[in-house]
From TrEMBL:
Highest taxon listed in the record's lineage: Bacteria
Catalytic activity: tRNA(n+1) + phosphate = tRNA(n) + a ribonucleoside 5'-diphosphate
Protein name: Ribonuclease PH
Positions annotated to bind phosphate: R71, G109, T110, R111
EC top class, as a word: transferase
Length: 231
């Protein structure tokens, strides 16, 4: 992960997982949506898009189609609710943070990379708010990471690429919050070719937990470098 890739957002990072690369940026907006006003609570939401050249064949920008596709809407909601699971919205106050996730190159796992990178830029945005005096005290997120797992050729695989995902009998996206006592924010699993049993499910979840632990280490190392650069 490489931070500071954009000058204007409160936090930005490019996350690379294999051949998948996602640019994540967090922007702070004053106020909250109308339905949230006078609640004393902040808001965190996400937007997701894929650059036309992110895949082997150019994909049209959704803006030229006049509407956001169902897949994009689903991924945006996943990223947003995952990030909200890691933050104390009451401590944030009536401030909105928008996390933009733009896929530069797609080779599987773009939504999980967006969650993992999104956590980093959200924390950087909170650091910026505190540095500007807009938060009374530092606000730390709960640990949060996401990864894909699956069963390919009868064996469990972590962080599937496009070829592995296409061949997977089972594929699953897992979002985990917390450290000492991890909890699941999201478990999206599908038996693409055949049903899977409880033992296989437990094995995939254990693999995902181990993967998320490694991702958390990378997140913390990235934050440390970013904070040291501005200290």
């Amino acid at each position: 992960m490489r931070t500071g890739v954009q000058a204007f957002p409160a936090g930005s990072v490019e996350i690379e997982c294999g051949q998948t690369r996602v640019l994540c940026a967090a922007s702070v907006e004053s106020g909250v949506p109308p339905w949230r006003r006078d609640s004393g609570l902040g808001w965190v939401t996400a937007e997701y898009s894929m650059l036309p050249g992110a895949t082997s064949e150019r994909s049209r920008r959704e803006s030229t189609r006049g509407r956001i596709g169902g897949r994009t809407h689903e991924i945006q909601r996943l990223i947003g609710r995952s990030l909200r699971a890691a933050i104390d919205l009451g401590a944030l106050g009536e401030v909105s943070i928008v996390v933009d996730c733009d896929v530069v190159q797609a080779d599987g796992g773009t939504r999980t990379a967006s969650v993992t990178g999104g956590w980093v830029v959200l924390q950087l945005a909170l650091d910026a708010l505190y540095a500007r005096g807009e938060l009374a005290e530092p606000l730390a997120l709960e640990p949060l990471a996401a990864v894909s797992v699956g069963i390919v050729d009868g064996r469990p695989v972590l962080d599937l690429d496009y070829v592995e995902d296409s061949a997977a009998a089972v594929d699953m996206n897992v979002v985990v919050v917390g450290d000492e006592t991890p909890r699941f924010v999201e478990v999206q699993g599908t038996g693409e070719e055949a049903p899977f049993d409880r033992g296989e499910l437990d094995g995939l979840l254990d693999l995902a937990l181990a993967g998320c632990e490694r991702l958390r280490e990378a997140q913390l190392a990235t934050l440390h470098r970013a904070r040291s650069a501005v200290a």
